[in-house]
Prior knowledge:
Strands 11, 12, 13, 14, 15, 16, 17, 20, 21 and 22 form a ten-stranded mixed sheet that branches. It contains 18 helices and 26 strands. It is 32% helix and 24% strand. The chain is globular. The chain folds into three domains: 3-156, Spore Coat Polysaccharide Biosynthesis Protein SpsA, Chain A (Alpha-Beta Complex), CATH 3.90.550; 165-401, Spore Coat Polysaccharide Biosynthesis Protein SpsA, Chain A; 412-510 and 517-585, no CATH class. Mean pLDDT is 93; it is low at 30-40. It is an alpha+beta fold. α2 (176-187) runs parallel beside α4 and α10 packs across α14 (519-535).
Amino acid sequence: MAHVLQNVVFPGADDPAVFPLYVDPEHRPTAEGEHAAGASATPIDGVLGRYSARVPAQSTWSFSTYFNAFPASYWRHWTSVRDVRLTVRSTGTGTVLLHRSDAQGESQRIDARPVAGDATTIFDLDLDGHDDGGWIWFDVVAEDEPVVLDGARWETEREPVRTGKASLGITTFDKPDYCVETLRTLTASPDVLSLVDRIFLVDQGTRLVSEEEGYEAVSSLLGDTLQVIRQDNLGGSGGFARAMHESLHRPESAFVQLLDDDVRLEPESLRRSIVFARYATEPTIVGGHMLDLRARCTLHGWAEVVDEAAFAWGDTNPDRMPHDFATASLRRSPFLHARMDADYNGWWMCLIPLEAIREIGLALPAFIKWDDAEFCLRAGKAGFRTVSVPGVALWHVSWVHKDDMIDWQAYFHARNRIVAALLHSNAPRGGRLLVHSRRVDLKHLMMMQYYPVALRAKALRDILAGPHRLRASLATSMPAARALASEFPETVVHRDDSAVGHPRTGRRRYAQAPKSPEGLRLRWLTLSTLVMNWFRRPAPENLAAPETEFRKKDAVWWRLGNVDSALVETADSTGKLLYIRDRRTHRQMLRESLRLHAELRRRWPELQNHYRDALPELVSPTSWQQIFKEKA
Length: 632
């Protein structure tokens, strides 16, 4: 019996922006040097349906793309699959070309088959030589007439290692429109739903999904498969922990697939993640990539890792991310052909085997930030690896368009990173973590961003109070962090320039992207800027009106540190923030930051023992069940 590992799919004809993720088209002129009939049409016009498309005459459509190439190295390394079969069904006269690449991105043609009329072309392939990297893909070449691709799929005769279904866990806070659209996408994907046991939609908001237009229609189609759960806002960790907890009681579920709320789903990705997990030789966390919802062909992160020394998260290739497939296709991106291993995967899309949850517990009660990384690090210690699988992805608003490092979320960034390090770092006293954390405070102070410094100080005080604070403050930490914003005028988003006045010296414009100073220059700039802002009083005229204005990308600490006030556009470009230097606040916060970081360093071994001893209880189903009962 053949098992489908991966279908070749196409986007909707109304969505041309994402076409490069599915097809890499090339047009060839005719022998007379003229373009073939219909060549002026856009490639998306050739899409006939979810699984079929018309390749125009005198054209080659290559499926060496993110969603349609086969990531051979990942299947070879992590699963029991050793042989695959590619089946291509077509109508018309042309050629099907087969290619494979290695870990360096070098590709070679390995087969070519002519097709004519109604044809079914089969390629049997082994995955030998693909352990370290490489993809396999095919091209369809049309000559004088179009060729219709009626369907293509990657299959195996091998039986899966495990056969359970997945429960889906969607956590939402006031994103009912996104959630209904995700449910609508699922109802239109019966092949995906056949692998789904239950959909747990954990609604923690005030704008209820059940009251959103279109909900009744999708709810009736999904029937008992959909279960909406209402609870207080316990953040992403509380919502996903609830989905984990509920899934543990589903006999047919072997996995729980976590999905964020404000996403757009590629349903084939969801099917692939479940199938990959079924074939994994060991129970494996299967992660999905994040594509940018605003720049649809842009990928943010390929394999997320945690740097042990600084205990900071990031991509294995930070200098090459984000990656835009609209300008650099898979064939033209050699670095994407090496197999890359991950430490964790974001919970915008992440499938977790229930075996792992039964062994290591549920999410840390962290509200948001680092709960996904901490869980995967904990799972890794227990032998459950995380694999971020290419071709498994959804669209999500990226962090590039958010100011979450300077709004209320700064509290959770600081607290949960250090808590995760206390739980998992092997470096003495956290390695460079506390040095980096103190440096973050200094940068905020030089940039006149006092609110995040206040939040970060609160985070350090709560860490020093001990692990019991995590559970005790789960429902109150976010409201408290947001309430603190009222004490800092720079948190107000100004939509109208007349409310703050025009900058005295105009807008600062820079032709090149800012490059951070390094070495001795970095140390000198930091010291001189801190000393200057400690002693210098802001000029009165710069307090009465903004001294200057910066674009978001130009507003870096070594530029803002030299002015008394500035307007800075928000990350989403919907307004501006007004920063004003305050010498007294600068001095008080600098002293407090130095004191708290010194105390944390001194008490690190003691706190590390306390947090590690408390972890089993914090993440236990019993503890979470009590939280759910209290916050129902």
